[in-house]
Amino acid sequence: MADNADHIDGDDNEDVRAQQNLIKIKLKSSEGGIYECGLTAAKMSDLVKNMVESLGTDAVVTTEPIILGNEAVTDAALKKIIEWVEFHWDDPPVDHDFEDEKDRRNEELSHWDKQFIDVDDQALLFDVIAAANYMDIKGLVEVGAKHICSKIRGKSCQEVREMLKITNDFTAEEEDAIHKENAWIYAKD
Amino acid sequence: MAQNYSKDSFDRFGDDLCQELLSYMAFKDRFRCECVSKQWQRVVFEGQLALNIKRELFDDNFSQIVSILTKCSNIRRVYSEYEEPVFKSFELIFLVINLCHHLNDMSFIVSEDNVHWINHFMAKFAKQMQCISFDFDDKAMIDMKHKWLKMCVNLTAIHIPFDELSKSRLGFSPRNDLHYKRLNSLHLTFSKSNDNSIDINLCAFELFARNYGHNIKTIGFTINFLIDDEMVNRLTDGLKRMPALIALDVKFNVFVDYLLPLIGLKCPQLKALTVDTSHLRETFKAINQCFNQQLKRLKINVWDYQQLSVDSLNSLKRLTHLKLFLVETTLTGLFFANCHHKWPQLRYLRANRVLITNQLLNALSRLRHIRHMHLSGRPVPTPRHGIQNVVINCPKIDCRLHSSKGKEVPEIEELFRKLMSGQSDPETSSSDVKSKYFK
C-alpha cells in the first residue's frame, strides 16, 4: 500500500516539476545580461535553489532577476548553462536505494552532453565549468570533468600542458625525478 | 586570485575544483600527469579510491607498489580482478598495513604464508572495514575467518557460505543484540553439505532474518547445489521477514525451479532483481507469473541458448531499468513488440544480441520515458527509418547501437549525430515518417 502511494507521489512530482518549469525566472550574468530560465531548470543550480527558497517563489518571479556575481558567469557562459539545465531539468532523480546508481560515475557522457560540452573556445569552456561550480550544478561540473579527463587520456605531460595552457612550475630536475618514479606506466603501454 | 590567470588556462581553477575535475581520470593517466604542475601533483591522486592489483605493478624490490600506495593515499578498496598470484603475497598485505589509512574493502586468499600478516591487518583495520572476504587454500584455517569477521563490527556487506552461517555471529545472538549494526547486505553461497548441518544453518538463517531483517537491503544467493522444497520454503520465509529488502541477486549454477516464484509471491517489497542462469524461459515465466507489478529494475544474464516467444517477458508496469545479457539467444523485434504497453516506465535499456531492425527501433521509440538505450548485436543494414523515429519521438535519448563486437558502427553514429543536431537524413523523407509514427 505504501508502495502505491510513493508511485502516485512520483507522478505528481513529475507534473509539478513540468508545471513549475513553465514559470520563468530571470538570471543576470556578471556582465549584466538578463536571461529567462524555467524555474525547475534553474533550480538544478543549488545556489539558485537556495535563493528561490529563501526569497519565496513569488518574489523571484515578480521582482528583480537573480544576480550571479561571479566573473565566470559571463553572458556566453550563462547562455550555455541555461541551455544545459533546460535540456536536463526532467532527468529522473538519482535513486539512492539502488546500488547500481553508483555506476553512473563511470558511465560515458551521453551523445547530447558530448556535443554540448565540446566547445572550441577554451575560455568559454572553462567559464562554463567555473560558473557551474559557482552555481553548484553538480551534473554539469561532472560533464565538464569527464570531458577534460577524456581529452587528457593517454597524453603526455607536455601535451596536457599545451592543451590546457598550464604553466610548468617544476624544475627540470624535479620533473625528471617524478618521471623516473612513474616510469613503470610506460612499460606495457 | 583568478585575475592573475588567463581565462583559457586551466591554472585559473582552485585546488578544490581542480581535484573534482581530475577525479574522473584513468589510473595510469594520473601518474602520467603528476608532473604537469605542482597543483596537479597535489590533487591528481586524491580521487583514486580503488586499486586493482596486477602483476605489472610489482617489481623485484617492491619500490613501484610502495610508490603507488604512497601517492594514492585515499585508497579505500584493494582488489584483484583476475586473482593474480601477487594478490596472495604477504608482502602486499604488509605494505597495505603500512601505507594505507582509509582502507575499508579488501579480499584475501588466506594461506600459511600470509595468515600472520592478516592478523596484523585486522589489528589496524578491523573496525573500519565495510566489506571483506576470505578464500582459503587450506580448509583447516576456516575458524580464523570467523575470528576475523567477529572483529569487523562495522561491516556493511558479508559474503559467506551458507554452511558457515551457524558458526558466524550472524546466526548466533545470545541476547538478541546486533553484532554488525551497519550490515545491509548478505551474500550466501550454497554448496553440497550434509543433511544435519542444513537444518542448523536454516535455523541460523531464520535467526538472522529476525535480528537483522529490518536493516537488510540486499541479499545474494549463489546456488551450486540443488536445494530442496523445504529449504526453499524456509529461506523465502526468511526473506519475507525483511521489510527493507530492495534487491535480490541470484546466481544459479544449478537451477532451482521453485525459488524465483516463491520469492516473487512472498516478497512484494523487492524492487530490483538480478538473475544469472542458463534457464531463460523458466526465469521469464517466474517473473511473469509471480513478480508482476513490483519490479523497477531487472537484470538477466543468460549463458545458454533458448528460443524466445513474443510473450517471453510480460507487462511490468513499474520497470524503469532492463538489462539483458545473452550468450546464444537473439532478441528480435518480437520480444520488444508493444513494449510501451508492457513496460511504460522504462527509461534504461541495455541488451546485447539484438537484431536491430526498423521494426524494433520503431517499437522502442514509443517508450515515453526512455533515456538510455544501449543495444548491441546486428544492425541490418542501416535502419534509417527506425533511427529517425527514435530521434523524433525521444529527443532526449542517449542511444547507442553497436555491432556484436561492441564497436560503434560509423554510418549509424554519423546518422545519429546529424539527426540530433536537427539536420534531416537525405535518404529518407522525414515528413513521411512523422505522419506515420509520430502523434
TrEMBL record, chain A:
Gene3D superfamilies: Potassium Channel Kv1.1, Chain A. Transmembrane segments: none annotated. Keywords: Ubl conjugation pathway. This is SKP1-like protein. It comes from Medioppia subpectinata. One of its GO terms (biological process) is protein ubiquitination. Belongs to the SKP1 family. Pfam families: Skp1, Skp1_POZ. The lineage of its organism: Eukaryota, Metazoa, Ecdysozoa, Arthropoda, Chelicerata. Residues 138-185 form the SKP1 component dimerisation domain. InterPro entries: SKP1, SKP1-like, SKP1-like_dim_sf, SKP1/BTB/POZ_sf, Skp1_comp_dimer, Skp1_comp_POZ.
TrEMBL record, chain B:
SUPFAM superfamilies: F-box domain, RNI-like. Residues 13-44 form the F-box domain. It comes from the Eukaryota. InterPro entries: F-box-like_dom_sf, F-box_dom, LRR_dom_sf. Residues 420-439 are annotated as: Disordered. It holds the Pfam family F-box. Residues 421-432 have a biased composition (Polar residues). This is F-box domain-containing protein. It comes from Medioppia subpectinata.
